[in-house]
Write a structure and sequence with these properties.
Structural class: alpha+beta
Strand order of the largest sheet: 21-22-1-23
Distance between the termini: 15 Å
Strand content: 25-35%
Largest sheet: 4 strands, mixed
Bound molecules: ligand EPZ
Radius of gyration: 22 Å
Helix content: 25-40%
Number of helices: 14
């Protein structure tokens, strides 16, 4: 029952340091199982999705030691279970990566069936297609999905749809299979390359990550290593949008500018200035924001996870912007909240027509999901007056120290705990 109170209307200025990438971390942590030894993982973001993954590893018998705030030593030689604890796996959808890692190392794995979620249907048929192509069988019992195989053998998998999760799970499944696996029509996001690099550091032979075809030659043994996770492209993009939205001047540090190109291009089109350095970008905005159209597509296209943030920005741009969501069926649920702030947005299925208004007004709001929540924070930072955002646990799944980072940029944001109402026991 926590919420953010934001007194908006101040331009953000200063520097912000970006944390490690959530969507790489939630795959790399299960992948440590493949080492069957000690891995040191650096640049881990301190967010609730990471703590849930770490709790899963610990409950399955791994020995986890915190070396510093963003570094863990994980010894997976002592894993003594191939079933992910039900309660924990339900907390985060990415627990499906444990299936690939457990299948690969032990020949079987069980996790809770990932349910539908806020973004629309989220099937895992392509993950299972990869596992069964490698020789596994799958079954669903009591809401749990089981995969098992006496032996995994290299295979040719052509994915029907480009899927980040299925690409990573297929790599996890294939690294110890006998012979070569060819994965075609794969996702190319920076975190796919990061996971492949991590697997190779553990002794795997994965080539082509970042292109449409990945080839994996199965190896007999893998080992521990030290690995540093890439910076979070979406966290960086979120602060870039916040700087542009508030007419600020922010140096976004510890990033890989190449990963941000689709975001940078759209911000410049919308009227912000983006100056690139080796490991940082500076975002400033002096003039008015301008309308621009956006269509989300798999990498290197414009990332769906930035769509709500850009919609917020364009809601106060001069002119009409058309936003088309190309990945998820149901990713405009936050628009109702923006409309209550005075935005003029019409949604029809996967398309939103945004008529720019002069300003957004403060309002009480509710975060529907992680990126929608971040988008509402940015909207509130720009609205003159006090806004409240509820259900911030969604936001804390993916943004490390968001309050402290925004405060350091001059934002007036506080996080308050509210007592639970009577009889509100979890159901
Ligand atoms: C990852 O989800 C990210 N999550 C999402 O980020 C992100 O929105 C998404 O990729 C797309 O970039 C993690 O990495 C943990 P997909 P994932 O499989 O892997 C369909 C955030 O805010 N599909 O690439 O689950 C699916 O329905 C989160 O950080 C199938 O049809 O996404 C969707 O339309 C939200 N069958 C499309 O593919 C499958 O077996 C892309 O999904 C798998 C997916």
């Amino acid at each position: 029952m926590e919420k953010f109170i934001i007194q908006g209307g101040k331009p953000l200025t200063g520097e912000v340091t970006i944390s490690g990438a959530k969507n790489a971390a939630v795959a790399i942590l299960p992948a440590t199982i493949l080492a069957g030894g000690v891995c040191v993982i650096e640049n881990l973001p301190n967010i609730s999705d990471v703590s849930a993954s770490v709790r899963i590893l610990s409950e399955m018998g791994a020995k986890v030691t915190m070396l510093d705030k963003s570094t863990l030593e994980i010894d997976t030689s002592c894993i003594n279970s191939t079933a992910v604890p039900n309660e924990l796996s339900r907390q985060m959808r990415a627990s499906y990566y444990f299936l690939g890692a457990l299948l690969s190392r032990f020949g079987s794995g069980t996790v809770a069936m990932p349910g539908g979620c806020n973004l629309g249907p989220r099937p895992i048929d392509q993950h299972l297609k990869a596992f069964t192509s490698l020789g596994a069988t799958d079954s669903v019992e009591y809401g749990m999905i089981n995969v098992k195989a006496d032996k995994l053998e290299g295979a040719h998998v052509f994915f029907d749809t480009v899927s980040v999760g299925a690409t990573i799970n297929a790599m996890l499944g294939a690294v110890r299979a006998e012979g070569q696996t060819v994965l075609e029509n794969v996702a190319k996001e920076p975190h796919i390359v990061d996971v492949a690099n991590f697997l190779n550091m553990m002794g795997a032979d994965v080539r082509g990550a970042g292109t449409d075809v990945i080839k994996v030659r199965g190896v007999k043994k893998m080992h521990g290593c030290t690995y540093s996770i890439i910076p979070d492209q979406i966290e960086a993009g979120s602060y870039m949008v916040a700087a542009a939205m508030t007419g600020g001047n922010v140096l976004v540090k510890n990033i890989i500018p190449k990963h941000l190109e689709p975001i940078t291009a759209k911000l410049e089109r919308a009227g912000a200035m983006v100056e690139e350095f080796d490991e940082a970008v500076r975002v400033t905005r002096v003039g008015a924001l301008q309308a621009t159209n956006i269509k989300t597509t798999p990498h290197p296209g414009f990332p769906t996870d930035m769509q709500p943030l850009m919609t917020v920005l364009l809601s106060v741009a001069e002119g009409t912007s058309i936003i088309t969501e190309g990945i998820w069926e149901n990713r405009f649920r936050y628009v109702d909240e923006l409309v209550r702030m005075g935005a003029n947005i019409q949604v029809d299925g996967r398309v939103a027509v945004v008529e720019g208004v002069r300003e957004l007004l403060p309002a009480p709001m509710r975060a529907a999901d992680l990126r929608a929540g971040a988008a509402l924070v940015v909207a509130a930072l720009a609205a003159n007056g006090v806004s409240e955002i509820d259900e911030i646990s969604h936001i804390e799944r993916g943004y490390e120290d968001i309050v402290e980072k925004l405060q350091a940029l001059g934002a007036d944001i506080t996080r308050i705990e509210r007592p639970s109402p009577p009889n509100s026991a979890a159901v």
